[in-house]
Amino acid sequence: MIVLMRSTIGLTEAERLELSHRLFFLPRYSPDLNPIEQVFTKLKTPLRKTDPRTIEATWRGIDDLLDRFTPHECANYLTNASYASV
After folding, report:
1. Which pTM value belongs to this model?
2. Who contacts 21 (Cβ-Cβ below 8 Å, separation ≥6)?
3. Partners of 2 in the β-ladder
4. Do residues 62 and 43 touch, judged by C-beta distance below 8 A?
5. What is the DSSP letter of 21?
6. Average pLDDT, stretch 77-85?
7. pLDDT tens digit string along 35-67?
8. In the prediction, which pLDDT does 8 show?
9. C-beta pairs of 24-33 under 8 Å, 24+ apart in sequence
10. What's the half-sphere exposure (Cβ side, CA atoms, 13 Å) at 65?
């Protein structure tokens, strides 16, 4: 199986027919369907409010904010992105 992202790779019809594999094209990138993007969106605003001034303070702030994400909420992000059952 060959999985290709929708890139500018150009295969001619003859080249596609020569392949003994099935081609599966992934959809164009969509942040709405990427669970980590959804988490980052929720994480960024409160992190900015903590106004960290050092790398260590930033990591500490992230660590504190990650506790706000419940397992149920994380599962909902995956379900919303149409990932396999969680």
Report:
1. 0.53
2. 1, 2
3. 23
4. yes
5. S
6. 76
7. 888 888 889 999 999 899 999 999 999 999 998
8. 46
9. 29/5, 33/81, 33/82
10. 19
